[in-house]
Write a structure and sequence with these properties.
Number of helices: 7
Low-confidence stretches: none
Strand content: under 5%
Helix content: 55-70%
Radius of gyration: 32 Å
Structural class: mainly alpha
Shape: rod-shaped
Length: 149
């Protein structure tokens, strides 16, 4: 969890509603939130943000925050297995089937890596050949003219 979120939640957990209900996110009546009673508080939160019907994010569904969090993690180069564990997916296949398209092209990265290795090897081989040619020329230069061919 990001540290700043800990600060925000610390303030939230100090509120009277949370203290009285003993729940992290109780409804206004102090009962646990369920799928059936979540819609009203969610819409109230959107309205508190000023996201009325004419706002582009007015129809934001709570579960979309989960997808947004994953997209942000991928943009920060999070490893797919870390995302799988954070989301509680049963397998890496589930995670990659859902979010695989958001990861940068691995094929391109592999090609670039191989290119770098080959360039380094070719460069080293060229230097080796150049050194070998210089050594042979030096040896030839030291030979008497009659033995050079």
């Amino acid at each position: 969890m990001p540290a700043i979120l800990g600060d925000v939640l610390g303030e939230h957990f100090g509120t009277a509603a949370v203290q009285t209900a003993g729940l992290a996110f109780p409804t206004l009546t102090g009962v646990p939130m369920r799928r059936s009673n979540f819609r009203k508080p969610w819409h109230r939160a959107l309205m508190d943000l000023g996201w009325t019907d004419d706002h582009p994010l007015a129809g934001l569904v709570f579960h979309e925050l989960r997808h947004t969090a994953v997209a942000l993690a991928i943009a920060q180069s999070a490893h797919p297995l870390a995302i799988k564990e954070r989301l509680g997916h049963s397998s890496i296949t589930v995670t990659l089937d859902r979010y695989g398209g958001l990861f940068p092209s691995l094929d391109e990265a592999i090609a670039e890596g191989l290119d770098a290795v080959l360039r380094e090897q070719f460069s080293a081989k060229r230097e080796q050949l150049a050194d070998s040619v210089q050594t042979k020329r030096a040896k030839i230069a030291r030979l008497p003219r009659s033995e050079r061919s």
